[in-house]
């Protein structure tokens, strides 16, 4: 028959973790960071749960034990290890192990390390390996975690139920499992409630911050307005101080001078408006589309010069640099020069015809055949476009007169403006 008090054989899922895994988990929970807490000569050691299975067990033990005792009681740890930490030689290493063993022995006697069957010997710290040493480090780390939780996380540890981990039967595992599930559910609900309250608090803080920001901006605006009013009042006060000692007669004279200055200003404005009324009227006509709409447009004046005329005027075109079309656009200056050549040629031909009609001998056939042909061509062309040219001359004359009048008005206006300046 089996004893009911004897622990039953459990499955792999309920098998407790090994001491190495437990002590390393405790170190991680306590915040042990090898790059931070194991520097210098300890930096070459690989710190993990199998750290006490290598060749540098004693050296690896020193930063771990110091970290645990420093977490347990920083003041007492500095005092007890003052002569041997940090470890720099073999003598200090031996002294460090002696101090650590004495402190652990005291904790074991005080019942702080839990199990009463924990074997504690000084020789274990000379090798720092084996299952018994692993159990010592595990017990120390468990005790340090308990102390730190009660000391630094009291409000969290108070809500955690006390659970007896000394299991004696399979039913005890099921009971503890159900207790853990209920506690996890309760903690999850509490966490959700705390999260909602935190979100509500953040919303209130955000609303309060926005309200404070708005009030700050309003206050700054009011401050700026008051500052401007203060400066304006100070300036007005300074002006009043300058005139408060003046007599009534002096104040009346000052007012009269200001009124006279305003009258002169308005008189000059009215004079300028009356003198420049023609110019402003021209501007108004242009703005309101009442101006003269007659324009010279090169697209409506195609220039077609006969080839025989181009042959006659070739030298004059080169000499005067006449090019009727510049970049595809009709050039007004070249057009006027061409028109001048045309009038000169027309005048010469008219003079020649008058000479022929006054019974002068005609030119010989061998010398004047080409000239007679040109004369006949020009005469026929002149009859066709003479009337059109006369009308254009009249139009140009009237346009010239109008431009001269406008130029005269502009010159007079410029002269008046110069005199005023």
TrEMBL record:
GO terms for cellular component: HAUS complex; mitotic spindle microtubule. Residues 352-374 are annotated as: Disordered. Keywords: Coiled coil. Residues 23-267 form the HAUS augmin-like complex subunit 6 N-terminal domain. The keyword Coiled coil applies. One of its GO terms (biological process) is spindle assembly. It holds the Pfam family HAUS6_N. This is 3779_t:CDS:1. It comes from Paraglomus brasilianum. The lineage of its organism: Eukaryota, Fungi, Fungi incertae sedis, Mucoromycota, Glomeromycotina.
